[in-house]
Amino acid sequence: QVQVAESGGGSVQAGGSLKLSCVGSGFDYIGTCMGWFRQAPGKEREGLAAIYTGDGHPYYPNRVKGRFTISQDPVKRTVFLQMDSLKPEDSAMYYCAANPGGSCGVWERLFDYWGQGTQVTVSS
Questions:
Q1: In degrees, to the nearest 5, what angle opens at C-alpha 102 toward C-alphas 97 and 105?
Q2: What is the torsional sign of CA 41, 61, 80, 27?
Q3: CA distance 69 to 80
Q4: What is the pLDDT along the chain (124 residues), one digit of tens a residue?
Q5: For the purposes of burial, counting CB atoms within 10 Å of the CB of 56, is it exposed (0-12), middle (13-18) or buried (19 or more)?
Q6: What pLDDT is recorded for position 121?
Q7: Which of 59, 61, 122, 68 is nearest to 90 (CA)?
Q8: Residues 6+ apart with CB under 8 A from 2
Q9: Where are the beta strands (DSSP E) in the chain?
Q10: For residue 66, what pLDDT is reported?
Q11: Backbone dihedral region for residue 102 (phi beyond 0: left; psi -120 to 50: alpha; all else: beta)
Q12: What is the predicted pLDDT for the residue at 105?
């Protein structure tokens, strides 16, 4: 059974940092695309970063502007999202997703398996 589970969300003040974690199970980790997305109330879900676990190559949309960094620990089957210089508008539910098929990018349609999400709240 494929499972994707996020953790690490919480409340932080503007300018602070958080590091989210995502553990994948039930599929071959190496060769999978793992991605991070977020959705704020009343807004569409947006892609933040993705990583191809085979070689660690990251993918970012242009609008992320270097505040978010994706990384992985293949031994632990875990992908991380380091978020720095957080702003109140970064408040959202953050989701991890997996595409064992291997095609990689930050497009929502690529991903077949999704976690339940972890809430991030940034106060001013």
A1: 60
A2: positive
A3: 8
A4: 999 999 999 999 999 999 999 999 999 999 999 999 999 999 999 999 999 999 999 999 988 768 999 999 999 999 999 999 999 999 999 999 999 987 999 999 999 999 999 999 999 9
A5: exposed
A6: 98
A7: 122
A8: 24, 25, 26, 27, 98, 100, 112, 113
A9: 3-7, 10-13, 18-25, 33-39, 46-52, 57-59, 68-73, 78-83, 92-99, 113-114, 118-123
A10: 86
A11: left
A12: 95
DSSP state of 41: T
Q: How far is CA 116 from its chain centroid?
A: 12
- What pLDDT sits at residue 90? 96
Whole-number Å distance between alpha carbons of 84 and 87: 9
DSSP 3-state assignment of 122?
A: strand
> Rounded CA gap, 12 and 53, in Å?
29
In the numeric block, the tokens 């974690």 are attached to: 21
d(CA 8, CA 80): 9
